[in-house]
Design brief:
By secondary structure, the protein is α+β, with helices and mostly antiparallel strands. It contains four helices and six strands.
């Protein structure tokens, strides 16, 4: 599951990581796996806390699904992702409970505007996140 943590200025929080094998750097949303017996919302709250120290995560709205394959640290992973949109107060993220593996790979955090995602030379995952976020923000404004 992936979380689109959006602050009041429509910025999304992304994590910067470095592949231990290739040393390639990338940015990706907060998220992770759903444990057996855990609801999607409970998993979202747990991952948000573990990766950013965010407590009291508001309920998320499902916005996207995707199946894809990615490579990291010389291994290939096939994953199914449920994407949830969460409106949050702006905060300064800091890891609370990372695995040893995450602690070795996570470099930092940044709040990104959709326009920045469209124009950056940084590697963002998914690659189309800027376009997806731009479209989502238009849809959210029309609903509100």
């Amino acid at each position: 599951m992936k979380l689109i943590l959006l602050d009041a200025d429509d910025r999304v929080l992304l994590i910067q990581a470095k592949d231990p094998q290739s040393h390639a750097e990338c940015w990706y949303p907060v998220g992770g796996g759903v444990e057996p017996g855990e609801s999607l919302q409970a998993a979202a709250a747990r991952e948000a806390y573990e990766e950013t120290s965010l407590t009291d995560l508001p309920a998320g709205t499902p916005v996207w699904r995707r199946d894809h394959r990615y490579e990291f640290n010389g291994q290939a992973f096939d994953v199914h992702e449920e994407w949830l949109l969460h409106r949050v107060e702006h905060f300064t993220p800091k890891p609370a409970n990372l695995s040893a593996y995450e602690a070795r790979t996570i470099l930092g955090f940044h709040w990104w505007r959709a326009q920045e995602l469209l124009t950056t030379r940084e590697t963002i995952f998914p690659l189309e996140l800027g376009q997806l976020l731009t479209k989502l923000l238009v849809e959210v404004r029309h609903e509100g």
